[in-house]
Amino acid sequence: MAPALFQSWALVNEFLLLFALYRLNNMAVLATMAATSQQQLRFKGGKKGKKSSGKGGGGAKLGRPTFETERCPVPLDALQDKYHGQLQHLLNEYATIRTGEVTPNLLDGVKVKMGDATFALSQAGMVSVKNTDTLIVTTFDSDTAKAAYEAVVDANIAPNPVRDDLVIRIQMPKLTKEYREQVVKRAKEMLEQTKNKMRHLRSHAVSQLKGTEGLSEDDTHAMQEYLDAINTHFVAQADEMYEKKADHISNPQ
């Protein structure tokens, strides 16, 4: 009985070892696939600067560079991360624009200042929805309530917020045609601010490129064209975000 038992345990251990190796191999394959997918997302196929056809195509497609990226004095991955950051900032700002019933995230952009500290309104108290047009902020103490109320007034989200001790009541404007037009205009201003920041990123990158010695004229030209393509790619995405937001504001579901 004992030898047979030991033999069975040996078979079990061998099976567990093979299964573990199988799992590790699959994890390595998945990691490789993820890295490949990320690289493909960073360099989408298509000609530089050419806009895609059809709705929801993601704007201008970004092709692969025609030069050795290691020779480029501008860190392209870091540059694209900065552009992504600008898109994310615009997305966060658009989340604070009302297109239908009120939600707590309409107050995400409100920053409260107390002494040397600045923090989100959601950290000053609990934000809740009272009805389809009213938000309630319940703060923790009178000092925080005062600072939070001043932040709401300064943010100009609603015309007449009301403070009652620790509670702030925010009556949002009715979604009239005139109000929607004003909000679309505000969204457009946010877009232009984002595009200006993107143009600054491009300008800084081009200055860095032109200030580098030892590059051939062809390489410099190809690199600057690619910097332009990066800018075009992300500006097109920002434009598309605005078009979608403006449509949601003007034509709520």
From TrEMBL:
Every copy of the Ribosome recycling factor domain together lies at: 92-249
Q: Ranges of Basic residues compositional bias?
A: 44-53
Recorded GO MF terms:
ribosomal large subunit binding
* Chain residue ranges for the region called Disordered: 42-67
Q: Which Gene Ontology terms describe the biological processes this protein takes part in?
A: translation
Q: Which residues form a coiled coil?
A: none
Q: What GO cellular-component annotations does this UniProt entry give?
A: mitochondrion
Where does the UniProt annotation place the signal sequence?
A: 1-20
> Entry's Gene3D superfamilies?
3.30.1360.40, Ribosome-recycling factor (1.10.132.20)
* Keyword list, A-Z: Protein biosynthesis, Signal
Q: Which InterPro entries match?
A: Ribosome_recyc_fac, Ribosome_recyc_fac_dom, RRF_sf
**SUPFAM superfamilies of this UniProt entry?**
Ribosome recycling factor, RRF (SSF55194)
Identify its protein family. Answer: Belongs to the RRF family.
Entry-linked PANTHER family: MITOCHONDRIAL RIBOSOME RECYCLING FACTOR PSEUDO 1 (PTHR20982:SF3), RIBOSOME RECYCLING FACTOR (PTHR20982)
Q: What's the protein called, per UniProt?
A: Ribosome recycling factor domain-containing protein
